[in-house]
Amino acid sequence: MKPPILELKNISKHFGAIQALEGIDVQLGQGEVVGLMGDNGAGKSTLVRIIAGNFQPSAGEVILAGERVRFASSAGARQSGIEVVHQDLALCDNLTAADNVFLGRELRRRIGPFSILDYRAMARRAAELFSELQSETRPNDKVRLMSGGQRQAVAIARTRLSDARIVLMDEPTAAISVRQVGTVLDLIKRLRDRGITVVLISHRMPDVFAVADRLVVLRRGRKVADKPIADTTPEEATGLITGAIAVA
Amino acid sequence: MSPMPDTILRVGRFDPAEFAARYAAPLFLLLLIAVFTALEPRFAHPLNVFNILRQVSISGLVAIGMTFVILTKGIDLSVGSLLALSGLVGAYVAKGGLDDRFALGGAATAANPLFLVVLAALAAGMLGGAVQGLAITRLKVPPFVVTLGGLTAFRGAALLFSGGGPISGFSADYAWWGQGRIGMVPVPVVIFLGAALIAHFVLTYTVFGKHVYATGGNERAADLNGVPTRRVVFITYVISGFACGLAGFLLSARLNSAEAVAGSGLELTVIAAVVIGGTSLFGGVGSIVGTVIGALLLGVLTNGLVLLNVSSFIQQIVIGITLVAAVTLDQFAVRRRQAQ
């Protein structure tokens, strides 16, 4: 186990009478890729949203780099270096790739009393990020004209704007063609190689087994498995997800 | 590692639907100008040109505000009523009350300086917009319903406020804003074009402008990326209200009279101008340049048909068809976008 960058201790979350998560302990190591699996309603998205600051836990603590944190919003988590690639990528189709990368944190420059958008700087930085991600996405193309893989690259490029320490990816391969899956998995490996921790939520067994170092399985709000990927098999994972295997 | 295998190069790819949606309005405007000029020599006379521009400037100003609203996927049906109400508020302040509401050449009784008049009209407009904006963003009532309520309520407020009658007869200073000229150019035209320039700048070069497009394109995505979408939407209704206030003041100055029935049905002309100018009712796509072209197109069409002695009934039919054609093109373009 690599030194933990993020620790979740005894996290519970309930919405009214519904218990979404119960007593979850998870540690994320630096530069580690953790596959998070579970059936629909198992609590994966809730867990990710707690880490990303969208939700606050009902009980338990979140410890980031040794310090206890409590994010009031996603902006707070983002400032602490936690980035999310949302399931539907959260792109505005009517804007360009560069606009989307910088959405919500646009670069500006001053002209006299005015603070105006610095399109050139944003396009330049976006182009750098795309080439870093080895994607041929062009910064000034409208997102609506892009392929699934390019859209994915735009969403991932956002996470590279600041010094992200943790990137949470919610079903990054669900909406793209099989051909493009490989590209996304390569992107994940490159993030890992830079020492960035990646949490990969996926329904696709082959994806998780291709890139993850460790597998965490949730079922009905509880953690039922947490082990190195090398010590498990797709068959065992399936059993854990469905409940055929109670715990491992 | 190889680059993405299926990068699709689309530069220079010609899309007729996209092209039509984008350039139909300016092309149609040029065509109209050419036809009217050929058929009727008086059309291109500078006096008539400025006449058209002056007629367009009031609805055009309101259309600029409306563009912001429609870009966020909203709609503001209350503009005509709000224009009347803010015009009356300005006139009331100018007269210092309703006592001598019909006094001509009100200089003798002018109670308040002009800047207060303008401020009052703008404040009334912005307040009306802010109330609607709050209802839309906080109470989550659809814009169509809120501003439909505003359409009725502001008109009622205007009638109540004025007791049904006009407030007329302003000082020369006041009337200059509607009737005066700077060089050859009527004052309202200068204000309209100035406002268009500023609005274009805001939409194209500021963070707020980018957030307007983002909110209209995909509100949830904008939200997730930290765009304050509720604030953005709220501000667009305040901008629309501001435009109504300014237009209400200019109209009262031009007519030398403020009336509760001013701007009846204006919302339809204004929405038509915005939509004909290529701004999508589905949000996120459009521009101020388009809106100016849309407003000019409607002005030229009306003026030219009048000069050619075409019945005003037929004019309405022509404008109606133009509007539907514009939206059809937009729909078509949207479907093409989704198919890609």
TrEMBL record, chain A:
- Name the source organism: Devosia nitrariae
Give GO MF terms, alphabetically: ATP binding
**Cited CDD domains:** ABC_Carb_Monos_I
**Coiled coil where?**
none
This protein's name: ABC transporter ATP-binding protein
> Which InterPro entries does the annotation name?
AAA+_ATPase, ABC_carbohydrate_import_ATPase, ABC_transporter-like_ATP-bd, P-loop_NTPase
Q: Which UniProt keywords apply?
A: ATP-binding, Nucleotide-binding
Instruction: Tell me the domain of life.
Output: Bacteria
**Lineage summary:** Bacteria, Pseudomonadati, Pseudomonadota, Alphaproteobacteria, Hyphomicrobiales
- Keyword Nucleotide-binding assigned: yes
Domain ABC transporter intervals: 6-245
